[in-house]
Amino acid sequence: MNVATKLKRMASMPAFPVLLALSASHCLNDLLQSVITAVYPMLKSDLGINFAQIGLITLIYQLAASIFQPVVGYAFDKRPFVYSLPAGMCCTTVGIILLAWSSSLAGVLVAVFMVGIGSATLHPEASRITSLAGHERRGFAQSVFQVGGNFGGSIGPLLVALIVAPHNRHYIMWFLVVAALCFVTMRPICRWYSGYLARMRADVARREAHAVLPLSRGLTIFTIVVIMLLIFSKYVYMASISSYYTFYLIDKFHVSVSESQIFLFIFVVSTAAGTLIGGPVGDRYGRKVVIWGSILGTAPFSLLLPHVGLPLTAVMSFCAGFILSSAFPSILLYAQELLPTKLGMISGLFFGFAFGVGGIASAVLGEFADIYGIEAIYDFCAYMPLLGIIAVFLPDLHKARRHS
């Protein structure tokens, strides 16, 4: 089957326009979130804060997102709310306004907390709707959804470099245009979700009664623990890049702030590309294969990155981001297949855990950088992808389903 035929089949999916809207909403939402890390150098200069306080900002943002995500997911599993996505974007919009005008660390912490609440609402809800709209092609659907977020996260730092960095933090207000566009893209999603809920509401009891769990309770708990360890290894390394890569490049290679944002853009583009590949490959070859290869396969590049020059640093970061990011769609779908009646809660749990790990890791790595230097972060975090070897303990859910 050629590429044109595959694209035609994808576009013929009944809910394909909804998937595109979900991807666009994720793109615009994560673009707004990426503004936080992109303005770290400006915050450090404007407020006179140190690396530990940079880590604290990330910690507050990530904890707000991580703690509330499983709560939001569980609540809306029980009582679905059609307008949950616009409600989350309202919180993000308030946070962006505060980030542009806050003149103290406390104000910045309130701003990133509000953006975190917005993230905690969008990710589990949009992921749930994506799974519902994807039907039998859930891996492809999740990749379309995830790549939107990665693309938005990649262009956010670039837009900050072009719009904000040459002027001052007040220019963050221009990103309210992005928030307005996000509200627009959410309208068709809300319409589709409202219709879906109307069709499915009377059928909920029957569908849940016939849902079959692929593993025993004990093995399910063990498997979730393994998945969380894999997420831990992935997001500790990702935190080292997302929060401190620009400082690393400025310190080691003496690039400008704007140039460092371009290198960060290259890395985040690689994560978008990897995410787009990971879901469909998981649909075809199985989630476990993708999870195993993507995390462990990152290790050669993460280990080389601290020991090469600037051009090869860009290459190593691109390769590491591309391979590592292909894991998350498969991880999320694998977890959803463990508990098929709790899509929102599982999405919230794993998005939230990923955000929480990233936040805590950023705070710890900030302290680490203040004590040992920024380059020491990459010498230490280079070994985190090696933890991917524990993916060998993940059961094959397709085999388990056939034998149940």
**Low-confidence spans:** none
- Order of H and E elements: HHHHHHHHHHHHHHHHHH
Cα-to-Cα separation, first versus last residue: 33 Å
Mean pLDDT: 83
Q: Give the radius of gyration.
A: 20 Å
Q: Largest sheet, described in full?
A: none
Total beta strand runs:
0
Number of helices: 18
What is the structural class?
Answer: mainly alpha
What features would you highlight for this structure?
single chain, 404 residues, mainly alpha, 18 helices, 0% strand, globular
Describe the structure.
The protein is mostly helical. Helix content is 82%, strand content 0%. It is built from 18 helices and no strands. Helix 5 packs antiparallel against helix 6 and helix 7 packs antiparallel against helix 11. The longest helix is centred in the middle third of the chain and has 37 residues. The model has no long low-confidence stretch (mean pLDDT 83).
Short description:
The protein is mainly α and 404 residues long. The chain is built from 18 helices and no strands. The model has no long low-confidence stretch (mean pLDDT 83).
Question: Which helices and strands, and how do they pair?
Answer:
Elements: H1 3-11, H2 16-38, H3 40-47, H4 51-78, H5 84-101, H6 105-134, H7 138-164, H8 176-200, H9 204-210, H10 217-253, H11 257-285, H12 287-296, H13 299-304, H14 310-325, H15 327-338, H16 343-372, H17 374-381, H18 397-403
Helix pairs in contact: 2-5, 2-6, 2-7, 2-8, 4-6, 4-16, 5-6, 5-8, 6-7, 6-16, 7-11, 10-11, 10-14, 10-15, 10-16, 10-17, 11-12, 11-14, 11-15, 12-15, 16-17
